[in-house]
């Protein structure tokens, strides 16, 4: 153990966690189906109270199948920084698909302002449905390195 390098980490204050969430645009969403896990990069928007996840569905999406079976999702944000300057934020809770009236608040302009641009891989853009989910925050953990 004397040859393993380590850095101490400390909990973040709530205001620092909020700043990290508000400044970010992309995180890694962890989903599960029994003992099978699935993690994907996703665009998200945090307005200081609610955390929204934007997902693209082409009708045969693996992620959408996992969304249906996940009871407790986890969004991970992090920066490994350089040396001793790193941090991570984990947000956990259930995913709830926005109903039509809530979804209407995210028109094309609002989507472009709120979320990172959408990456499309070998899909017909016209065949993609954008879905917005709220990650209903049950817990948030923020850690950062320190001296």
UniProtKB/TrEMBL annotation:
Pfam families: Pyridox_ox_2. It comes from the Archaea. This is Pyridoxamine 5'-phosphate oxidase family protein.
């Amino acid at each position: 153990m004397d040859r393993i390098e380590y850095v101490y980490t400390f909990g973040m204050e709530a205001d620092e966690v909020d700043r990290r969430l508000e400044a970010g645009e992309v995180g890694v969403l962890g989903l599960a189906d029994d003992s099978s896990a699935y993690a994907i990069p996703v665009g998200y928007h945090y307005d200081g109270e609610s955390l929204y996840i934007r997902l693209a569905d082409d009708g045969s999406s693996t992620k959408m199948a996992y969304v249906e079976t996940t009871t407790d999702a986890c969004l991970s944000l992090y920066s490994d920084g350089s040396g001793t300057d790193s941090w991570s934020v984990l947000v956990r809770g259930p995913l709830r698909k926005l109903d039509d009236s809530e979804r209407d608040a995210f028109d094309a302009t609002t989507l472009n302002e709120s979320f990172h641009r959408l990456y499309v891989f070998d899909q017909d853009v016209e065949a993609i449905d954008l879905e917005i989910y709220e990650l209903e925050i049950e817990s948030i953990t923020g850690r950062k390195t320190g001296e």
